[in-house]
């Protein structure tokens, strides 16, 4: 335990002492600006002034979880020519045009000047439904903001291209009292997306039209923010480079090689902790088996589960079928069960009975 406490104290001291050399940063920035001037001509000078300058961070190990770090910068890293789009919610009892006019008036009253377009949620859902319209929207603007009240509804309507290019909208509280200050902090600030799929990540911190001192101050602020907000233990940052989209990466910071031993010690501590946890689990399992053996040795009867017999099914009693009574055919001439008498017989019988006479017997 004493070793662990001393190790944590050493890591905290190292993170407090970690800094970046200002002279080295300024030299790298001046070299980068000289390279951009050599590549620029009279026609492309305006484009070179708006080129992005980014910091490339290389970490000692891949972070266990993804993270997004907001980086406030002392000097704005976006030029005035860049266009910003704002997604807002649909105001009740207002049409889309009325909602656009309402938010433009609100931004003008608060003193916000760096937002060029306002798109309500209903317009985004209807007019920008095809994929071609979404790609056109992505290419027309340099940055996207969204009202925090509709932020959760946007991913299903923006499409995957916004997230593949890391251009998803940043949240803004439209009900804030200091709306202009909050929007300028988000627009002129930067953010770093740290993924758990690799050890390299990049953040935009300046543009080519800024002076060397302004770029240097932004680099220092970004380095301190990232080194304090990264959710990893021990030494974090291995290398830091500065570059543009078309230039090589110039080194600004290289971590001390003593951090390798610190990382090895941290890895050993984690491995020993895992081994101790596995040993405790095994000891607990062995203790259970020993308790079972002791109970068997003392002669205690261990209750066993006895399967219950299923009740036998009673045979079904066969019910005698009902005998169907045979109905005799009924005739029109006589009753049931009697044979019809022939008409000729009836006539003949009547004639015979009439012709015969009773003769008295002689005594």
TrEMBL record:
Region (Disordered): 280-363
InterPro entries: eL8/uL1-like, Ribosomal_uL1-like, Ribosomal_uL1/biogenesis, Ribosomal_uL1_3-a/b-sand
Basic and acidic residues bias (residue ranges): 288-297, 315-326
Gene Ontology MF term list: RNA binding
Any single Gene Ontology cellular-component annotation: nucleolus
Keywords from the UniProt entry: Acetylation, Coiled coil, Isopeptide bond, Nucleus, Phosphoprotein, Ubl conjugation
Biased composition (Basic residues): 335-348
SUPFAM superfamilies assigned to the protein according to its UniProt record, in alphabetical order: Ribosomal protein L1
One Pfam family recorded for the sequence: Ribosomal_L1
Localization annotation: Nucleus, Nucleolus
Main localization category: nucleus
Function noted in UniProt: Regulates cellular senescence through inhibition of PTEN translation. Acts as a pro-apoptotic regulator in response to DNA damage.
Family designation: Belongs to the universal ribosomal protein uL1 family. Highly divergent.
Name under which the protein is recorded: Ribosomal L1 domain-containing protein 1
Organism: Gymnodraco acuticeps
């Amino acid at each position: 335990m004493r070793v662990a406490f001393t190790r944590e104290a050493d890591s905290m001291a190292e993170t407090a002492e970690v800094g970046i050399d200002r002279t080295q940063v300024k030299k790298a920035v001046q070299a980068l600006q000289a390279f951009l001037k050599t590549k620029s001509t009279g026609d492309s000078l305006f484009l070179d002034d708006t080129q992005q300058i980014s910091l490339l961070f290389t970490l000692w190990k891949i972070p266990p979880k993804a993270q997004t770090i907001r980086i406030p910068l002392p000097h704005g890293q976006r030029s005035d020519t860049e266009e910003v789009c704002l997604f807002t919610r649909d105001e009740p009892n207002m049409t889309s045009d009325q909602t656009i006019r309402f938010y433009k008036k609100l931004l003008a009253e608060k003193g916000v000047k760096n937002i060029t377009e306002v798109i309500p949620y209903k317009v985004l859902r209807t007019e920008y439904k095809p994929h071609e319209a979404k790609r056109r929207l992505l290419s027309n603007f340099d940055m996207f903001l969204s009202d925090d009240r509709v932020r959760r509804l946007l991913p299903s309507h923006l499409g995957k291209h916004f997230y593949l290019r890391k251009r998803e909208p940043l949240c803004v509280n439209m009900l804030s009292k200091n709306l202009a200050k909050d929007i300028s902090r988000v627009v002129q600030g930067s953010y770093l997306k740290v993924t758990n799929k690799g050890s390299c990540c990049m953040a935009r911190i300046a543009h080519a039209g800024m002076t060397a001192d302004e770029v240097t101050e932004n680099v220092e602020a970004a380095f301190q923010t990232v080194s304090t907000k990264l959710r990893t233990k021990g030494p974090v940052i291995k290398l830091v480079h500065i570059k543009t989209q078309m230039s090589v990466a110039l080194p600004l910071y290289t971590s001390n090689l003593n951090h390798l031993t610190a990382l090895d010690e941290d890895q050993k501590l984690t491995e020993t902790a895992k081994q101790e946890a596995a040993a405790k689990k095994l000891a607990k399992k062995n203790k259970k088996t020993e308790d079972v053996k002791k109970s068997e040795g003392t002669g205690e009867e261990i209750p066993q589960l006895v399967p219950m017999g299923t009740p036998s099914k009673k045979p079904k009693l066969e019910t005698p079928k009902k005998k169907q009574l045979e109905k005799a055919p009924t005739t029109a001439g006589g009753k049931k069960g009697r044979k019809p008498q022939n008409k000729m017989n009836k006539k003949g019988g009547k004639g015979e009975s009439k012709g015969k006479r009773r003769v008295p017997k002689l005594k």
